[in-house]
């Protein structure tokens, strides 16, 4: 559209079509409690499915998204009497980490798309959910100043949750399967973010099991998570710091998070920019 083309012209710096990803539950690295490791990240090309999902959500939202609406609408588990966890979750970073953990657990439970007629849709939803989940985990770990919460608090929360996850997974001695992973995180973790993430994963798996009992095709859990992550990206999009978002998303990042403290705040930021401008910068729609 003309509006998108005009917004794209506001972006002066070329940007490679990449984003950084990381994970709290990195189950294939050494997990000894006495050997802290730098945060491991990887740079990947933004899949077309991710761009399409965000554009579709942007069009349907008409620019008005609130965090609570996004969460309750996307993570409403149809056919389930279970209450989701939002009474305890009041900060954006909490929401991101709980849902990131649940998404990672579902990757363990459903490592490959189903082989039904709906497998193409399942695969697309899985790609959207896992990539945006990893990107949001990267923002919390390495660029918390781009989130609505206090950046120092967000970084401390990530470190605490990561340390608790490493301790719990170390007790398992090997990369666990789904049931063992949920048990380790539910019973072996002190931090409620990890326990809530495991509980949310169980609810999503139960949703899929209900589907199977009713002989419905597909994997509704991936659809729910793809909707959620597409909405949360739009919620996070209004930002005063486009250059920082570009650096967070592009291959110009080193691939590892800096351990140095954030610089002291400068002058007050300018008024928030539009979602369209930032989303073009992040996901290169045109």
From TrEMBL:
Q: Where is the composition biased (Pro residues)?
A: 264-273
The source's domain of life comes to Eukaryota
Q: Which Pfam families match?
A: DUF594
User: Where are the stretches annotated Disordered?
Assistant: 253-273
Record's compositionally biased regions (Low complexity) = 253-263
Against PANTHER family, the record matches this protein to: OS01G0798800 PROTEIN-RELATED (PTHR31325)
The protein, known as = Os07g0132700 protein
Organism field: Oryza sativa subsp. japonica (Rice)
